[in-house]
């Protein structure tokens, strides 16, 4: 009967027992999992899963997600080195294995983030939640109109790597956030808000999670001042520094760094000497 777990089935009640009902194929529907009173020979629609002992059991609380049926599932628990558990709309929470999550746990989903998943099984026949591939998500994508350029959109991160993060917006547009357009890497499943900086011919969009230049200059200047204060008023950076070194330390582009330095020098809060920046 293991092949039926993760699916919704209509089964007949064979008999009642103290703990609940025995359905055909000797599947137990516990009283706690039955939302209706049943009698012998009634038929009932149930979702099948395995309990902790590995037995196939039933619930009348039918999930939105099952084998080959995808949906958004909120993360309810994160277990380091194992994976995250998601709520698929039934009583049993399902594991998304670490094998289907990013290599680095700091970009794993947090509680409340959502993943677009279906159900599958591991080698022992136990239920797992499997995140959707790009090919599956393509069915959801809408063609983005040109007039959304510079507008703000929200969406969920469904893929993340060093090059950037990929998002599906609430309107169904596929968006890409290049690593230079974010101060930190968003988590898989995180809800983000970004600005549309490019609408491609194929109907996809590029997003930035960074504020507009006039807003970010003040934030970047504050970050430089904080760094100076933490390092006895001197840092080995100037407007001639290597762009990669700047990005590794401040998570901003060299152009943004130079703008922030210029602002601070104009305000006479810093000075540059010998390739270093000093707090005044």
TrEMBL record:
First and last residue of the signal peptide: none
PROSITE patterns from the UniProt entry: S1
S1 motif domain: residues covered: 150-210
InterPro entries linked: CvfB_fam, CvfB_S1_2nd, CvfB_S1_3rd, CvfB_S1_st, CvfB_WH, NA-bd_OB-fold, S1_domain, WH-like_DNA-bd_sf
Organism: Gracilibacillus marinus
Protein name in UniProt: S1 RNA-binding domain-containing protein
Family in the record: Belongs to the CvfB family.
